[in-house]
Design a protein that fits this description.
12 helices, about 325 residues, 8-stranded mixed beta sheet, 3-stranded antiparallel beta sheet
């Protein structure tokens, strides 16, 4: 058994350098690697370029902390606990961040192209919408389209030369330096097993130059090979692994613990201003490591979020209110 891929939380954050392009696992408020996000904020990471199928609570924390210069995606928010990204909205209004807007489907196609080694994807998605208005090519307007890590064009149009299916949109592959995956289990050699929906995680892992997996637990590879068809990402696609129980909080981990809706609602309500965010970060992020963060949350709170192993969700969380 090889432990050569094992790192700790601090080392994981150090791999993401200032100015890195970065992406994440999960979907909105599920399976986001929040422990790594908090550590990036503690290390005062700057100039990040987030490229995501969709944003979520992790985006709002990084943007509020001033870690992000560019965000490419389709939507950000906390679902019913805060329907839009107040921190991103504030920084856009203050002209402190560049937002490059694509549709949800286009973002997924961009990652699928990168995962397969293609330079671009072909689609008819969003034809006829203002997403393709050249006035909204914000990276182009900022003079950042160098044809290297950032594509020369936001999109190009062509006609289908094979079946006469009409106009097509060419959209660039999503090239990212680092992907951080949050999962229930990872093997000692990097094999990832995601329980429940795995969203775009396989594409995200293959698209990145470096893939880091933060898991609830590191397990023997032999165990994962007993039912190999249940695995999600192959070990050779993973560069680093770390074990971090409850590392997705306040987002949820299917089968392990629910989303902490009260925490997210509190965050959303208190961080409408920069002063509010700074106070929230001082209380919950700075001066803590992951263990002291969990101690501050308290075990009664975390036990209330713990999923019933038969139902895969918590029976202690009130729903429908």
């Amino acid at each position: 058994m090889s432990n050569s891929k094992r790192i700790n939380l601090q080392q994981a954050a150090e791999i993401v350098r200032d100015g890195s392009s970065l992406t994440f696992s999960g979907f909105t408020i599920w399976r986001r690697p929040m422990a790594v996000v908090y550590e990036l904020i503690r290390q005062h990471r700057k100039g990040l370029h987030l490229i995501e199928v969709n944003g979520g609570s992790h985006t709002e924390f990084l943007v509020g902390a001033g870690c992000v210069d560019i965000w490419e995606s389709c939507w950000v928010g906390h679902e019913l606990y805060g329907k839009y990204g107040a921190n991103l909205s504030r920084r856009v209004a203050n002209k402190e961040i560049i937002v490059e807007d694509y549709s949800h489907a286009e973002m997924l196609f961009r990652f699928a192209a990168a995962a397969s080694g293609a330079p671009y994807a072909v689609t008819q998605t969003s034809l006829g919408t203002d997403l393709h208005n050249p006035e909204y090519d914000m990276l182009g307007r900022a003079g950042l389209r160098d044809g290297k890590r950032i594509a020369k064009h936001k999109y190009q149009f062509t006609e289908d030369p094979f079946f006469g299916a009409g106009s097509q949109v060419l959209i660039p592959a999503a090239k990212v330096d680092v992907a951080v995956i949050c999962a229930q289990q990872v093997g000692e050699e990097g094999t990832v097993r995601v329980s429940g929906q795995y969203y775009s995680d396989p594409e995200v892992a293959r698209a990145a130059d470096i893939t880091i997996v933060m898991a609830e637990e590191i397990v023997p590879e032999e165990y994962l090979r007993r039912e190999a068809d249940h695995n999600t990402i192959a070990g050779f696609e993973v560069d680093y692994i770390l074990e971090c129980p409850l590392g997705a909080h306040p987002t949820g981990m299917f089968g392990r613990y629910d989303v902490d809706g009260a925490f997210l609602k509190d965050f959303y309500g208190k961080t409408r201003t920069q002063e509010g965010f700074d106070d929230f970060a001082k209380e919950w992020i700075f001066g803590h490591d992951h263990l002291s963060y969990l101690e501050k949350l308290g075990w009664p709170r975390m036990l209330g979020l713990r999923a019933n192993t038969a139902l895969n969700y918590s029976t202690g969380v009130k729903r429908g209110q």
